[in-house]
Structure formats: C-alpha cells, structure tokens
Amino acid sequence: MAYATATRTVIEVEGLSKRYRLGALQAGYDTLRDSIAHGANRMIGREHASKAEDIWALKDVSFSVDRGEVLGVIGPNGAGKSTLLKILTRITTPTEGQATIHGRVGSLLEVGTGFHGELTGRENIYLNGSILGMTRREITRKLPEIVEFSGVSKFIDTPVKRYSSGMYVRLAFSVAAHLEPEILLVDEVLAVGDAEFQRRCLGRMEELSRYGRTVLFVSHQMQVLARLCDRAILLREGRLVQDGPSEQVVAQYLQHEAGSGSHRVWTDPHTAPQGKRARLREVRVVDEDGHLLDAADIRRPVGIEIGFTILRDDGPIFPKIKVVDHKGDTAFNAMDTSAEWDNAPVGDYTSTAWIPGNFLNEGLYSVEVALCTLGAGGSQKLVHHGIAPEAVSFHVHDPALGDSSKGRFAGQLRGALRPQLNWSTSRR
User: Fold this and answer.
1) d(CA 342, CA 319)
2) Which of 147, 315, 338, 417 has its CA at a distance of 20 to 30 angstroms from the CA of residue 276?
3) What is the pLDDT of residue 268?
4) What's the alpha-carbon Rg for the chain, to the nearest Å?
5) Are strands 231-236 and 70-74 parallel, antiparallel or unpaired?
6) How far apart are CA 124 and CA 115, in angstroms?
C-alpha cells in the first residue's frame, strides 16, 4: 500500500513537552465521570486538600524518523517513553511543541488496545481494520493471515474478554502488524508473549521495515532492541539525551545504569588501587585497532587493556581479570601465566587480555582487574596488590547476519558464554 505522502520523513517531533499536575483535582479529559467527580470533591472541600505539583513527563524532545526506519526508544521507568507514544497516537495532547505524522498508524501500546471485550476476536479484527480506514474486502483478504499468525484460530469466534493476556497480545499484535499500517508503534507489551511468539513478532517487524514501513519500538529488552533497530533514542527524566546507532545507545545506557564505562583512569597515585608491590593506573576496553569500545560486535575480539606500575622487584607478579555478566555471575577468570612476569623489573607496563570473538553471549559485562602474586605455599591462594572491582564495562551485541555462533537462530541463547565450537561429523 502506498504511503499517504511521498516525503521521506514520516515522523517529525519538534520541541515536544508534556506537563502533568500532581496533587490537584482537575477535570481530566472532561468526561462526564471526571466532571461529576470534580464537582463532588469541590462540594465536600477536598479540592484544596493537597498542593499541586507540576512534573514534565516530556521536555523539549525533538527528532525525526524516515520511511522504513526502525527506531528504538529506551530509558529507565518514568523517562517518558509511553507518554511519547501516547502523543504520537493522539491518545493525549502535548503541552508544548508538535508531532507531525505522515501515514496510517497502527499501534500496540498495551494489551488489547482498541479491543472491545464483548466482541469476538473476528469482530475485533474488522473493528480495528475499519478504524484504520480499510474496506471490508481488504480486511477479509487479510483475515486468514492474521488468524494464522496469532495462533488463536480455535478461539477466534469467542469474546475476547475470555482471552488470557497471552492470547490478547497475540491477536492484538497480529492485527496491528497485518492491517497494512505505514507506521507501527509497539510498546513493551511484547514481553507478555512467550519466546516463540516474540521471535515471530520481531521477524514481522523486520519484514515490515523491508517493505518500507516505519517501526517505533519501546522495550527494556536491550539485546532484542539493539538487534532489531537501526537507530535508538535515549530518554531520561523526559529529555532526549542521546540519538545514534542502536548498539552504541544501548551500550552507553547500560553502562550509565551500571555506574561504569569503557575507560577508567586513576590520576592521583595516592588514591589508585595499589599494594606494596604494584599500582593500577588505567583500564580500557578496546577493539583490535586500540580504540575505546562501548559496544562490541559479538564476532570480534575485545581487549581489556590494563596500565599499571610495578613498585618493587620482589618476585613474580601478574595481571588478572574477572568478567561478570549482567546478573552478577562470574563468566570467567583469566590471568597472564607468561614467564615474563617471573622477574619483571620496576616500571610502567601495559598489558592487554584479548577475549576472542564468538565467545561471550549478548549482554552487558563488567570487568574486575587486579595485580596478583601467589600466596605462601606457592599456588593455593592469590594475593592482590591493587584490585578494582567493576573497573570497566562493555555491551556485546549480535548483528544477526547469520555468521555468528548463533547462526540463523533469532532467539536468545542462555548463559554468559556462547562459544563457536568446531564440530566434526561423519556418516555411516
């Protein structure tokens, strides 16, 4: 279906702000119910019971989205993500600024959006299609595909008020994604579905983008968002703080939430992690060219570069790293066992531990670095001479091109490690 306009930019948001007043009794959306409640509270003297307070759910947000682009919207709870989508779908109006949309919008902001509980699944499909401006013939043509994708064919003539939340979201997404919207807005509602259905939904959104449709995707599933979206925007406290390639925005958001980044330096030698024998100076996460790395392609090596100073020449000392996943579980420990550390003289050193490609799974990792010696008795205990827990962090993402350790599988493999092993096969 052709776009309603030939313009390349299909969503234009300029200076968008939304203010809410807390603690004050207001007429709300001027519905009869709100007006009656407002009048009753005024009569019994509750209107001044609490002091009004203004909050800005959005403040001066501006961005544009081109046709066929898949844009991710991320941020902590309360950042303004859902408010933004509600303005774009005209559920609520902005206090300041404007949002211009060129094209027909299909939205899935919460379970069962636009559904009438007393109507059957089939009747709701026709209702939603009519709201989108489609003819009955168009909806009938799409009906088998919608029902098959949703997986609720057995219950399609049952009132949707009897559906489970999972059945609701299956049918709601299928309707939103198949009734030929030019722009599809999807909130975190996909988290309700099971893993297999989420995989199909993501595949459908990728398919829509290939056909020139535009998708806005709000999610807390960072690996999924980084893989699906070309670009992402980060909202924090109602403001747009970052706009760029999705894997970079996701990495910096996760690092900010974790309280660490890809570079740590101790400029004051008195406050640097140290012991009597050695002192840490700097830790960096780097790529193969030595550049700082926030977002790592799962297929490429990642280097943990440690700058340190040996203060006393008093026997073997060596660098060590511990890599921890986003759940706080240790993925692995590694130390440099090279003989060169047996008699390393006093001085400044830089040592890099290389984590191979196709080894770590997708997600955020933090790295503890330390300078160690063996304890008394030789090998039963490590003694730290300078240790920095969670010194740096980095995010691993999979571009989903089919050449990683996951191949063409679109789902999420569990575990901190995801190595690409060598397989040998014989046929009898």
Assistant:
1) 12
2) 338
3) 92
4) 27
5) parallel
6) 6
For residue 387, what are the contacts with CB-CB under 8 A and spacing of at least 6? Answer: 273, 368, 369, 370, 371
- Residues of the chain with pLDDT below 70 are 1-7, 23-52, 109-114, 132, 188-195, 377-379, 410-411
Determine contact, residues 108/217, Cβ cutoff 8 Å. no
* Torsion over CA: 183, 201, 175, 250 (sign): negative
Amino acid 191 reads A
pLDDT at 105: 82
The alpha-helical segments, DSSP class H, found in 163-307 are 165-178, 195-210, 222-228, 246-258
Q: Which two tokens stand for residue 73?
A: 């919207």
In angstroms, the CA 398 to CA 377 distance is: 44
Distance spanning both ends of the chain, measured CA to CA: 53
Helix, coil or strand: residue 115 = coil
The alpha carbon dihedral of 321, 326, 327, 331 has a sign of: negative
The C-alpha atoms of residue 383 and residue 373 are separated, in whole angstroms, by 5
Q: What is the model's pTM? A: 0.69
* Alpha carbon distance 405, 376 (integer Å): 42
Amino acid at site 213: R
Token pair, residue 166, equals 């999972």
d(CA 394, CA 302): 9
Among 108, 250, 240, CA closest to 187 = 108
Strands (E), 25-120: 53-66, 70-74, 96-101, 105-108
Q: Which are the contacts of 191, defined by CB distance < 8 A and separation ≥ 6?
A: 219, 220, 221
